[in-house]
Amino acid sequence: MEEITESNDDDGGALAIERLLGQRDNGDRSSGPLTQILETERLKLREFSQDDLDDLAAMVADEDQVTFYFCTKTRDKASAWLCRNLDLYAQHGFGSWLIESRATSGFLGYCGIRPWPSRALRR
Description:
This protein is an alpha+beta fold. The chain has helices at residues 14-22, 53-61, 75-92, 118-121, and strands at residues 36-39, 43-47, 96-101, 107-112. Strands 1-2-3-4 form a four-stranded antiparallel beta sheet, with helices on one face.
């Protein structure tokens, strides 16, 4: 897969994402290398794996980290979210991506694209 890096293009990254999604194989990701989405000088975006549960669970259980969410989450809820996200990769080729530090490979958070429920579009 082509590595996509930050650029100074005026496309706001949309072209890079379109190129990436067009290259997706939607195969099983239970083993093998993680798919890197984007890399900048300081950050990497990549797909989540089950190995990321400890970091995700710690983040969503920390009140300071989830200030703008409704409440903290348990490890079980974090695990369920992670499983749903892995399903999104398989079904749609995208989902939420883990943000990590290039310098330390440390977990920093997540961001991404989620499908919009079709019933909401009918209103």
